[in-house]
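Support request from a user on the community tier.

User writes: "When I paste my structure tokens into the form, the page sometimes reloads and wipes my input. The last time it worked, I copied everything first. Here is what I submitted, just in case something in the input itself triggers the reload:"
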């Protein structure tokens, strides 16, 4: 509350599809379950794409892999670039998390 009408603080937004998915899970399960493959990602820069011999700047660059994670068990290694998940194209690092859950 502000007597002057000003506001300084932190706010955030949740995409409606993420919120509705969480609501549905709470209704059916009583909790929200999220997917995890066990990687830390970073964007693919034009220089990185060029250095890796990629024809386009796309995908998500694997920075590190958690030990004993699904990614580690699948053989994913740091330096790999994830360009598709479940048959869907990964254009940027932001595309992967919503697909995993």
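"...and here is what came back when it finally went through:"
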């Amino acid at each position: 509350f502000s007597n002057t009408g000003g506001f300084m603080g932190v706010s955030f937004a949740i995409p409606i599809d993420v919120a509705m998915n969480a609501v549905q899970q709470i209704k059916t399960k009583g909790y929200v379950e999220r997917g995890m493959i066990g990687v830390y990602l970073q964007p693919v820069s034009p220089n990185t794409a060029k250095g890796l011999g990629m024809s386009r700047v796309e995908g998500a660059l694997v920075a590190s892999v958690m030990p004993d994670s699904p990614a580690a068990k699948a053989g994913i290694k740091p330096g790999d670039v994830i360009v598709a998940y479940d048959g869907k194209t990964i254009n940027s690092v932001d595309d992967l998390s919503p697909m995993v859950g």
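Agent notes: The reload is a front-end session timeout and is unrelated to the input. The chain has a mean pLDDT of 90. The domain at 37-100 is CATH 2.30.42.10 (Pdz3 Domain). Escalated to web team.
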